[in-house]
Amino acid sequence: VFAMIRSTVTVEEAAAILGISRSSAYECVHRGELRAVRLGRRLVVPRVVLAEMLGAEQPQLACWSDSEQPS
């Protein structure tokens, strides 16, 4: 069975992954410290950006499933 893994997360999900508050995550986006992409009215963070920030050496490390997000 093919499982689709989203290539982006919401800013709120990125905040949880990074261990920061939702408002801090939005502040980081607006200051340019957390790279995000605007899709219409939504801001999303590419998983590869989070992997780079967390020091992942290989991009596939950014492909955790939604139930396996790092804590």
Largest sheet: 3 strands, antiparallel
* Mean pLDDT over the full residue set: 83
Strand order of the largest sheet: 1-3-2
Unreliable residue runs: none
Oligomer: single chain
- Give the helix level as a range of percent: 25-40%
Strand content: 15-25%
The DSSP helix count reads: 3
Our measurement of the CA-to-CA distance between the termini, rounded to an integer number of angstroms, reads 27 Å
Count of extended strands = 3
- Given helix and strand content, the structural type is alpha+beta
Q: What is the overall silhouette?
A: globular
Give the helices and strands as they follow along the chain. EHHEEH
Using only C-alpha atoms, the radius of gyration works out to 12 Å
Can you walk through the features of this model?
It is a single chain. By secondary structure, the chain is of the alpha+beta class. It is 35% helix and 15% strand. It is built from 3 helices and 3 strands. It has helices at 11-18, 22-31, 47-53, and strands at residues 8-10, 37-39, 42-46. The chain has a 3-stranded antiparallel sheet with strand order 1-3-2. The longest helix is centred in the middle third of the chain and has 10 residues, at 22-31. It is globular. The mean pLDDT is 83.
